[in-house]
Each structure stands twice: as structure tokens, then as C-alpha cells.
Amino acid sequence: MRIIHTADWHIGQTFYTFSRAKEHEMFLEWLRNAIRERGTDLLLIAGDVFDTPNPSAEAQRMLYRFLTQVTSENKNLQIIITAGNHDSAARLEAPSPLFDAFNIYVSGVVHYVHEEIDFERMIVPLNGGGCCLAVPYLRPGDYPESDTHSEGVAKMYSTLFNKAKEMNYSPIIAMGHLQASGAKVSVGDSTEHAIIGGLDGIDAGFACDGIAYTALGHLHKAQRVSHRENIRYSGAPLPMSFAESKNRQSVTEVIIEGGKCSIGEIHCPAPASLIRVPETPQDLETVLREISQLRDGETDDSSPYLQVRIKTDAPNPDLRFQIDSALEGKAVRLANIEVTSSNDKSGSDEKQMTYDEFKQLKPIDLMKDIFTKQTGHDLPENLEQLLNGIIEEAQL
């Protein structure tokens, strides 16, 4: 059985002021060809299909066009889609009666029968034998009663696994859209929505030892989890923020044969790259000098997105004009100007940290860092006092 695992498409994303429709169309065309050329039997899409719960008509048409084309070209292809935290779970499930005719299964919400979780609805038989535990993004209350969110998620998977074993399914694969402890998150990347307080910090032990492969979504960097080869994030096919500019985009290919599981990455071509000038914030003179070295030419849908990173001591009302003037005739699309205070010693936000490390950060420190990066000034004392009061009330 040949499987392609992908996630976090975020169809419909507007990157600052730029539509990414062309980039998504190019990725989906590449994926169609990869599925056909590699003889893929099963496509797993592990959440965040859309960028918002209310995607545009254009974004929905793009998904449905892809699903129609890829299933018509590959008659034996099975597709399983689970909802992510960006998706409207009910909206994603709505076309299910039509999807049934195309061998497409969508798991958007946790269903109930007589006030009990309908576990069997999330156990999806596979054409090649075995089954998939198609678990969508789990919000509080979407799992068996437990003391903590992490325990509840683990109990959901263990219950499903035991039921699948009782039904004599083999192999068993699983899907999930969550943030596993031990996985790498990009500092400064708001698109991954790390949640303070541990709501998304799920111990990797949620994936039972008997599961052949666990396909995860939510984090945009392709990686294994806690050194376990068979628990993986496929990563996003497009970089979703400048914090992801150095990520290599890919999908994961899994081959299960004779009881053995082999795993590899298939790298996606980047329709448009993300570049930062400079790599770390510098003074305006240095920035303008580096801009002058960018490639000349006309801009189009394949031109790189540009983030300009400036470190300054004081507001400069002519800053945007000077940057726009320097960029005239350059083959880039200016997406963002990041202004950093010269007093900021935090350094580059490209470093990686584990979720366990992230949980040690204090909310007020995060707010101060964000305020400084967005305004170039320190957080005013009155605002700091107000935020501390809010944090204290929330912890009562």
C-alpha cells in the first residue's frame, strides 16, 4: 500500500495583501501528477485544508476540482480528510454524501450516538486492507472524560486502536491534527497557533505502539516526533509565514508492505519563495544597500515575497517611501516591513524550540516582544500593568 500524507494546505490564504490562489493551483497540479506517477493508493490530508472557517467560493471550487480530477484519473485511489483547527468541521463534512461516490471520506466532527462517542465512525476501512483512525482536531469535550486535554486525546486514540484490533484490522494507521510535545515550532510563527497553557501539548505516547504510521497536521515544518520514525508531520506545501522561509516544503510517502513500513519525503517545488532582507534586522543604510543588490526585473505571480527587516532607534516617517523607492524595478513583491527596536536583544526568530521549552515562556514576555517587534518601542508601563492584571484574573 502506497500512501501520500499531506496537511496544512491553507487554501484561500491571503499572504499580507497577496492572494496565493496561483501557488495553490500549482501545488495541487504537482500533487495530481505525483499521485499518478507513483501509483498512490491512499491520500491522507491531515487538517487545515482551508485557511479560514469560512473559505471563499474560489477556495472551495479549487478543492473540489482537485478531488474530482485526482479521483477520476486514479480509479483505485482512496482519500481520507480530517478537519484542522482552521477548518469549519461541519462545512468540511457537508459534501460527504457526494464524496462517498468518489471513495473520499471526511472526518470533521466527533459524532455521538445516544450521548456516547461514535468511535466506529472514525475507523475507516482501507481498500488495501487495514484501517485508518481518522481523528479530526479535538477540542475540549471531544474525547472520553479525562482530567486533562492530553489524557483525553490519548484515551481517544487508545479506545479507537483497541476497537480496531477487536475488529481484526491490520495494519492500523492514524491521523491527527494537534501539537505534539517534542515537535519543533518556529518562534514568531503565529500561523501555527501554539496555545499557552498546554492545550495543544500532547505527549507523543498518544500514538499506540501498534499503529503502523501516524499522519499529523498542524505544525508546518516536516519532521518526526520525539525521534519516532512512524509519527510525522508532513509539513505545509507552502510556507505560511516568513518564520517558515527556510523550511523545505514536502509531502510524506509511506509504503506498507509485508508488515514493514518505509517512509520518505517527496519535496515540492516552491511556486514562490520567501526572502528576508537582511536576514537579521539592520540599520536603514544597510537595508537599502542590500535591497540594491536584489535582482532587477518585472514582478509576476512567481516573484519572491519580500520582508524588509529594519532596526531603528526612533520612528522614521519617510521609511516606507525610502524602501519603495529602493525597490523600484526589483523583481520582488514587498509583503511586510518589520521594524525592530535597537534595544531589542532577542535576536532572530528563526530558531526552533520544542513545545516544552515554549511552555516555559511567560505570557507577559511574549506580549512585550510582540509589541516591540510591531511598533519598535517598549511596551508602556500602564499597558504592562493592565496585562498583568488580566493574566492574574485568568489564572484564578
Short key terms for the protein model shown above:
27% strand, 23 strands, Purple Acid Phosphatase, chain A, domain 2, 396 residues, Double Stranded RNA Binding Domain, six-stranded mixed beta sheet
Content-based structural category: alpha/beta
Largest sheet: 6 strands, mixed
CATH C-level class of the largest domain: Alpha Beta
CATH architecture descriptor name of the largest domain:
4-Layer Sandwich
Number of helices: 10
Report the uncertain regions.
194-198
CATH homolog superfamily of the largest domain? Metallo-dependent phosphatases
Rounded Rg: 23 Å
Shape: globular
Termini gap? 52 Å
CATH-defined fold name of the largest domain = Purple Acid Phosphatase, chain A, domain 2
Helix content: 25-40%
Q: Short description, anyone?
A:
The chain has helices at residues 21-38, 57-73, 89-93, 96-99, 149-166, 284-292, 319-326, 355-358, 363-375, 381-395; strands spanning 2-6, 14-15, 18-19, 42-46, 78-82, 104-107, 112-113, 116-117, 123-125, 131-134, 172-177, 179-180, 184-186, 201-202, 213-217, 223-225, 228-233, 250-257, 260-267, 274-282, 305-312, 333-341, 352-354. With 396 residues, it is of the alpha/beta class. It folds into 3 domains: 2-267, Purple Acid Phosphatase, chain A, domain 2, CATH 3.60.21; 274-350, Double Stranded RNA Binding Domain (2-Layer Sandwich), CATH 3.30.160; 362-396.
